[in-house]
Amino acid sequence: MASEARNLTENNAAELARWCGGRLAREYDALDTSQSTLGINVPVVDGVERASVGDTIIRRNDGKFEIFKGMNQVLGD
Fold first, then answer.
1. How many angstroms separate the CA atoms of 49 and 15, rounded?
2. Cβ-Cβ contacts under 8 Å for 4 (sequence gap 6 or more)
């Protein structure tokens, strides 16, 4: 069960990194390295996972975090 879910955007990446105890990471476009977005290396149950713009970071009731890829459409952002 999720106690809180937040969608990752370019505008809230630093805030979400603080919220989940993660670290910001710059992600570069493989075809055009002049293009980049922010991601977050998020501590999860089994290590660290990368959340990218458009993903949802979920804090479970037990305080642990999970990442759901591309869930911003489902949550209404």
1. 17
2. 58, 59
